[in-house]
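Re: that chain you flagged

S.,

Sorry for the slow reply, it's been a week of failed gels. I finally had a moment to sit down with the sequence you sent. For the record, here it is as I used it:
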Amino acid sequence: MPVEGALWQYARMTSFAKNCRATVIPGLRYRDCPAAIEWLCRAFGFEQKAVYPNPDGTIAHAELRFGNGMIMLGSVRPDAPGVLPFAQPEEIGLRETQVPYLIVSDCTAIYQTAKDAGAVMVRDLAEMDYGGRAFTCRDPEGHLWSLGEYDPWEHPSPA
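Prediction finished late last night. Pasting the structure tokens below so you have them in one place:
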């Protein structure tokens, strides 16, 4: 494809994104969503933006902020209409196909906070070749989280 065509295609694709705080928001499902909300706030410092409980105590929808980012989450409800084909880590050998990455200013401090909250370390705190310190852990329901000081917005893309 000629360069002009590639640039047009790139411009066309990026124009789909809305000009807002964050255009990618991960969504997660938890069996005990109220406990997960409390844990994520305690372990990683998320703040509740909105929590919409169902009458039975499960969570229909929640939004948690982390800096200028956000995650959305809700309770696992296999009986709900229109349920998407989600699987929980425990159902698939603790595997994941996506892992949220939180950019943090002090990885050592949040590492300790996560450990104190009971996070299971999968990749211990270490200095990364690409910059900064990072670690990967599991939350109480087995979801993986990567946290690190590397900020891809601050580093130029390879040519």
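What I noticed first: The helical segments are 3-14, 33-44, 107-116.

Talk soon,
D.
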